[in-house]
Amino acid sequence: MKKRLITAVTAALLLMGCGSEPADTKPGPDTEPISGDLYSRYTSAVENRPAADSSTAAISTKYTYLFSDGTNGIYQMDGILEQDEERIHITQHLNANGMASEIDGYYDGSRLYNTFNGIHYYEDMTPKDVRDSMLMPLEPFVFPQDYVQGLAESKDAEGNTLYSLAIAEDRLADVFKDRYDFNDMDQLDECKVTSGVITDTFSEEGYFLKETSRFEVTFVYSGQEIKTIYDGSVNYVGYNETEVVITDAQREEFSQYVVYTDIDTSQIDTEPVADDTPEATASATFRKRLVNRLGYEEESPGVFVQSYNQNEAYTIDFNNHTFKYSNRTINYVYNWDGDIGTMGKCTLNFETSASASDCTEETLDMIRKVKGFLQMELYYCGLSLEELQAEN
Length: 392
Prior knowledge:
Elements: H1 2-15, H2 36-47, E1 55-66, E2 72-83, E3 88-96, E4 99-107, E5 111-116, E6 119-124, H3 127-132, E7 148-155, E8 161-167, H4 172-180, E9 189-202, E10 208-221, E11 224-237, H5 248-254, E12 258-259, H6 282-292, E13 297-300, E14 303-307, E15 312-317, E16 322-327, E17 330-335, E18 340-343, E19 346-349, H7 361-380, H8 385-389
Parallel strand pairs: 6-12
Antiparallel strand pairs: 1-2, 1-11, 2-3, 3-4, 4-5, 5-6, 7-8, 8-9, 9-10, 10-11, 13-14, 14-15, 15-16, 16-17, 17-18, 18-19
């Protein structure tokens, strides 16, 4: 059902008026012809990554359609998939030049209970079906050596290993169609995939942390050649820590849902409750969605607060580029501009891994978790910490 909806939205996007915001056309990372040792390390990283009992995946997909008159149309989707050994929780936000849709679902007892733009329904599924419904790959894949034109290996500041693959020209169409494109672009006239780069990131412990993908495609629509840039990403956090909670009250609500084949489509709300369209910058989009998606309140200009109980609260201060987690009288502060976390006299520089001599390991672990709290708030808003930091 969801894929039919998205295909229809994309078709409408091609017919409707389009915005003029310039597209990001940055090239992919440099790669080099692959060697046996390098390809073996890449293969080993994918195939030997540790298994986990639970995890949280944040996804983002963006199609940018570049029209010949200099305008463009943008289709974006972001979402979260939280999974433990028994249950799954998914959220998705879809936006096509202002046409917005929202999905919130819980998988429990072999059934997915979904809310889509105000409509409540259920579908019988397997956990794999639910993961596939996110409409983008959630796990890395070992591409055969003849699929790879170039391969690069690198390390980031945190010691993670990155493998960047440039897909071979004669394999581009198959890889994009079979693994990434959920809009069936291969059905469009004169469709050609012209480039594709995929980067997978693994932690020092071997866990799969992230995949980014970019493909460039051209096709002809109504006699006009249209260039499309596809950008996708999946980020993993919370390995062996994620827990999905479904209350008895929620299960009572689920008992009132109808099977998806009985949905009354006339009742689908086509007007978003709040404006969810991206703003010109990541910080402006974050401010908007903190309020609209997550229920934050703007305490003072540029300062947003979310209280969870009498003791705990998050404070996001855009004036000082800080995220604060407060628990009673204890405050942990993360500055995303400097990539530095503090609690009292304890300071941790994430870029260099340097910390003050009087920091305890327990405090350092909590500072790391607080940075992760901010990353999750960004993921819930369809953004990443890297996007926020890139503005500074």
